[in-house]
Amino acid sequence: MVPFAGWDMPVEYSGITAEHMAVRTRAGLFDVSHMGEIEIAGKDALAAVQRISSNDASRLAIGQAHYAGLLTPDGTFVDDMLVYRIGTSHFMLVVNASNATKDYAWISEHIKPAGEAACVDSSSRYALIGIQGPASLEVLRPLVNAPLDELKYYWFTHGEVANARALISRTGYTGEDGFEIFVPPNMAVRVWQALLQSGRAADVIPCGLGARDTLRLEASMRLHGQDIDASTSALEADLEWIVGWKKGDFIGRARLAEQKATGVTRKLVGFEMVDRGIARHGYPVVRGGTQIGVVTSGTQTPFLKKAIGMAYVPVDLAPPGTELTIDVRGRSTTARVVSMPFYKRATRA
What's the CATH code, domain 265-349? Predict the structure, then answer.
């Protein structure tokens, strides 16, 4: 257990490798109640979300979610988030735990020009439990009174899980099929225990922060505070797909448009180690003895059984196949740029 953003959080239960493999091959259970939930509602709620989010929320149907950036005027990250459209004029933003208070203050201030919209920090109203992996549907289905089979990826529904009122979202941070279940905090233990019981036949096990990190890295999902932060823009992070260019103005758009026109000078890339060694967060990428980039995430992955990572490098080193030199504890090692994601699950029928 470790302290994290005011929470006491599990790094691992039975071991990071075992938990990682459970999610890739069966299913794993995550308590991610530390995540923050911020709701925006009112006549001008859509305009408010459009102003503070990089993505185009007007394209969301009720019951649909998408990934977006909460950006500064420089096009860099205050945070990243999931945006859920609860109703025509009601949205929920799921943000990172360590940023929730800061994000709420930022959002409250910056939606004011949008018109009639109220912002509420609803984090204390929700516990959040994730069931992730190919067996997730069969584990969750017996506990739910909603039609899960028809629920598409990045859509959500309302119902009950183990007789607890819930918002059930087909989302996750592992690269696998799975669900994230928002329930009242006083129902969390009941839902957690019901999922473990339902998952006994599939050997579902609890998973901690360690496996969550190795799983998301295999899936090339960015981690705020490492791969993206207030010094990295959405285009540098290779996340132009979350920029709603056609929706009109939003915070950060002007700067991103400048970068798009002139081109960025660095880019986040994925790499595999060629030499022995693991290139971890903060290790320098060097050329001719000079640091020219930095590793933002890196590990030895339990499923792929490779040493992989992500790093910011000059754009001339970004094409797949390019060799990088990374300083691993004073030793020059070779890595090769590869296309992301490193791991992509088979599409379900």
Answer: 2.40.30.110
